[in-house]
Amino acid sequence: MAPEGHEAARGQKAQIKLASLNLFNFIEPPLAAYEFDRIYSQEQWQKKCAWLRHCLSSLQADVLGLQEVFSPQALECLLGELNYRHFALVDTPAGDEHVFHSPVVALASRHPIVELAALQPEPRLLPLLGLAADFRFSRTVLRGTVQLPDLGKLDVYVVHLKSQRPGFELAELPAMTDNAVTDNALPEKKGANAQIARLLTHSALGRYSATLRRGAEAMLLYHNVQSRRLESGNPFVILGDFNGELTRPEFAGLNTGAADIHPRDRAELTSLSEADFEAGAAAFALHDGAALFLHWLRQQSPGTDWQVRPTHYLGPRGSVLDHILLSAEFDGSLSSALADVVNFELFDEHLRAPLYERDSQSSDHAAVCVTLSTRQKR
């Protein structure tokens, strides 16, 4: 089954495809992920590699952002078979002996990667956000500059933000004691009540802790992106597993625009007209690739309705956790845009209609992919 998406109209100029995929524990045996007995058999490993070849061959993306990489050498070799001649990391998977617990992100491209950087938070921002001086991204953010035909240099960010799992262990939560006096307070029930209350408290506080960290990572990433924007002027794309819908409160800052700036904070820009200020702010906007595609689609067919399917499922409940954010150069509503987002694909057959023989060692995430069609230069 091919990835589903809307195809671009014929006659478009050069096209570039950008994709993101959480590989879900890409770790070559005999290494283990997180637990000492979590090791693929050789058969399972071969199935995982075969599935990845199938997925990437179906997408045919030019640039890939990949998450949950434990075995980068094996991944680089596999990608080389698929004509991804350029491969980059900025960090090393961490572990103890053969058990690894900290995967990394990777960038793969069919076009040259001409610059590479490992991003960490700006230290001067940490106290302003109430964060400890040693705060770091859960997984080091990779920024690679790819030299693309027609488009030129594109800054590509590969991210994997903090998961939704509790930010601390149950054992770290202070003990809770049931001292309530009731008519039928049996000792065993009192003990159970305390355990239940502790589990609920851990879930609530732990998820809140994870949300705070994920939000801090997103805002520190935003600062990095805007700083680089001023430095290079390059168009950019953010590829990654955000571990949350873009509508979640912790990501609200990613949508900051001119309307969010209070008039008194613009005192030094009084010479700018309102239109010029709005245009200046728009140049720094981050755009959801799915929203840009829907805009293009409605230009072609007014009234068309379309939405992204979930990229991850927890039981029957699906969520869009994986995203592609693009700079203003790909906002099709602007006459100055360099390219339009003319397709948005989701490779999710392994999630919606899995076949055991093919998909038993696949990812628990869908791959997301946008197609950019460059505009004629004036």
UniProtKB/TrEMBL annotation:
GO terms for biological process: GPI anchor biosynthetic process. Residues 53-365 form the Endonuclease/exonuclease/phosphatase domain. One of its GO terms (cellular component) is membrane. The keyword Hydrolase applies. Keywords: Endonuclease, Hydrolase, Nuclease. The keyword Phosphoprotein does not apply. GO terms for molecular function: endonuclease activity. It comes from the Bacteria. PANTHER family: CALCOFLUOR WHITE HYPERSENSITIVE PROTEIN PRECURSOR, ENDONUCLEASE_EXONUCLEASE_PHOSPHATASE DOMAIN-CONTAINING PROTEIN. This is Endonuclease/exonuclease/phosphatase family protein. It comes from Shewanella cyperi. The lineage of its organism: Bacteria, Pseudomonadati, Pseudomonadota, Gammaproteobacteria, Alteromonadales.
